[in-house]
Amino acid sequence: MGETPRLQAPGPLTRAALETAALDYLARYASSRASLRRVLARRVARAAAAGRIAAADGARLVEEIVARHVAAGLLDDAAYAAQQAASLRRRGASAQQIRARLARKGVEAEPIRSALGALAAEGSGDLAAACALARRRRLGPLRPPAARAAAREKDLGVLARAGFSQEIARRVLAAADADALDRLARGEE
């Protein structure tokens, strides 16, 4: 039987290794500057704890890599915010939820405001999002008629926790059926 090869301790964390990690991450995920910075900083922290890089040198490399990717157009917080906002809106997220989610991802206020403004300009407001959430979660008019009245308070709670106003929640739950919900979402009612 042969001997099993010994694992060698990894060498120092280099700029090339961090650059490769950044490109791998960006190839898999849409990202904000802050998210990429966080991912690379975790890698640097692990390497610093193992003595493979000085923490200050690693932090400097992370900032340089993020700045290079921004300059190259690989990281664009405005485009990221617009894409994420549109995706969340299709799933039924309120403006409040979208704002909070993007802020958690490190996107600054102006790109968030622009993304929400673009959604509003195309007619995709909170009412349409609430209708999408009702459809996805089978709330209100999508429940069987016998269960609708008994679940009204629960449905109001779901919509309220999702960040929708009481007025919007009541309008969505007052829709007579799925067709009425679709007309409400399109702004026809």
Structural summary, described in words:
The protein has 189 residues and is mainly alpha-helical. It has three domains: 15-72; 77-121; 126-186. The chain has eleven helices and no strands. α1 packs across α3 (55-72), α4 crosses α5 (95-104) and α5 packs antiparallel against α6 (109-121). The chain is elongated. The model has no long low-confidence stretch (mean pLDDT 92).
Give the DSSP E fraction (strand runs of 2 or more residues): under 5%
**SS-based class:** mainly alpha
**Structural domains: how many:** 3
Total beta strands: 0
Count of alpha/pi helices: 11
- Helical proportion, percent range: 55-70%
What distance lies between the first and last C-alpha atoms, to the nearest angstrom?
78 Å
Counting copies of identical and different chains, the oligomeric state is: single chain
- Cα gyration radius (Å): 23 Å
Return the string of H and E elements. Answer: HHHHHHHHHHH
The biggest sheet, with number of strands, parallel, antiparallel or mixed sense and barrel status, is: none
**Average pLDDT rating:** 92
Write the layout of secondary structure elements.
Blueprint: H1 15-28, H2 33-49, H3 55-72, H4 77-90, H5 95-104, H6 109-121, H7 126-137, H8 145-148, H9 152-161, H10 166-174, H11 178-186
Helix pairs in contact: 1-2, 1-3, 2-3, 4-5, 4-6, 5-6, 7-10, 7-11, 9-10
Brief digest:
The chain is mostly helical and 189 residues long.
Which features does this protein show?
single chain, 189 residues, mainly alpha, 11 helices, elongated
